[in-house]
Amino acid sequence: MKIALLTPNKSTYTETFIQNHIDYLPFEKIVVYGGAFPYLMTNEEPSLTYRRWYKYKTIVRDKFGIKTEAFKAHLLKKHLQKHDVDLVFAEYLNTGAEVQEVCKELKIPLVAIALGYEISQYRIIEQYESMYQSLFQYAKKIIVVSNHMKKNLLALHCPENKIVYSPASPSEDFFELQPTFLSKQILAVGRFVNKKAPELTIKAFSKVFLECPEATLVMAGDGPLLEACKMLVEELKLQEAVVFKGRITREEHKQLLAASYMFVQHSRVAENGDSEGTPVAILEASAAGLPVVSTLHAGIPDVIRNNETGFLVKENDVDEMANKMIELLHNKELAIQMGSEGKIYIMENFTLEKHISIIGQAINN
Q1: Does one domain contain both 227 and 201?
Q2: Is the N or C terminus of the chain more exposed, i.e. has fewer CB atoms within 10 Å?
Q3: What pLDDT sits at residue 13?
């Protein structure tokens, strides 16, 4: 079987789960990218001359009242036909919604995976509501990566028998890490965006620092809230205790995990409704053997067992987050135990092999 994997972005640097699908789904595949409606392939991008010719053709046909299909739909159709694609696998639900008409025209089955913002942001849901309804009817399966997302899909009237739960997973090499717990380094890895509330992590750490002045907070990632967070650190006079790493490589990520004492992330529902699926960074930290302090948000309770492999607090509860971080810093034995339990739990329930196997079965069926 040959599948076309459709993804909005050419670079999947920040989208580990998509790169895993590209690398490990056991099918012959082509990758098509180019925004919400993917239409481009590496080494097969249309020339400027071809683009101009198609635009001219459209103008001429329009004058004679002859409908011409959109350029992106035209190119996607060409790719699917040229490569004899048997099934389209759409990363993100709105991607599946955008390309469903092309799939219908070519009678190609469609499977879509929901990954987060596209079934939580109010604006996106409103924009795609009618397209989602037709997608639910045409798609063979809709895959979700958290139980919370399954509830969202059911609320959007997706037939339950089409929903497949396949939680995200860390890459296997994260299980090989063995944190030393020699320092009081607290680690946060993720984009600086509203739903991850990095400013609340900093505010919680400011309370931790008063109790444990030897503690440090390392924050890796970039995003629109980064500069505001740097200003907050200055305002709180934490410049010597908080380190901003910016965007990091996979190896740097693993080195930071191995050198850290715990992992923290204060995920919450953003003002626009945006929320997490199952944060891969949390899975990776737990797989590495670190205790996790996070929130009772979206898919996080699926992967972190509260009071066993980490602590989960209510969204926006900075004081309780600080208390749990302090509790772990004062109890190294508990931190090590939670980290060990977390590694075992993730290894038994959230492996990449299992994630890929479930998706593979959904496609084959």
Answers
A1: yes
A2: C
A3: 43
Which CATH number goes with the domain that contains 185? 3.40.50.2000
- Neighbouring C-beta atoms of residue 169, cutoff 10 Å: 26
Backbone angles phi, psi at 32, to 5 degrees: -120, 135
Contacts of 333 (CB under 8 A, 6+ apart): none
Mean pLDDT computed over 12-35: 85
What's the token pair of residue 189? 């890895």
- What pLDDT does 115 receive? 87
170 vs 312, which has greater pLDDT? Answer: 312
Tokens 């600080």 correspond to: 322
Mean per-residue pLDDT for 133-141? 98
DSSP, res 33: B
Looking at residue 14, its pLDDT comes to 46
Q: Say yes or no: 228 and 338 in one domain.
A: yes
Query: pLDDT tens digits for 74-100?
Result: 999 999 999 999 999 999 999 999 999
On the 0-12 / 13-18 / 19+ scale of CB atoms within 10 A, 42 is exposed
> What region, left, alpha or beta, does residue 148 occupy, with left being phi > 0 and alpha being psi -120 to 50 degrees?
alpha
Q: How far is CA 40 from the centre of its chain?
A: 22
Q: Which residues span the domain enclosing 122? A: 2-168+352-364
Same domain for 101 and 32, yes or no, is yes
pLDDT value at residue 311: 98
pTM of the shown model: 0.87
> From CA 44, how far away is CA 53, in angstroms rounded?
17
Same domain, 7 and 95: yes
CA dihedral 95, 99, 100, 102 (to 10 degrees): -170
Same domain, 128 and 238: no
CA–CA separation, 149 and 276 (whole Å): 9
For 261, the token pair is 């004492």
Ramachandran category for residue 314: left, alpha or beta (phi over 0 → left; psi -120 to 50 → alpha):
beta
- Average pLDDT, integer, range 195-209: 98
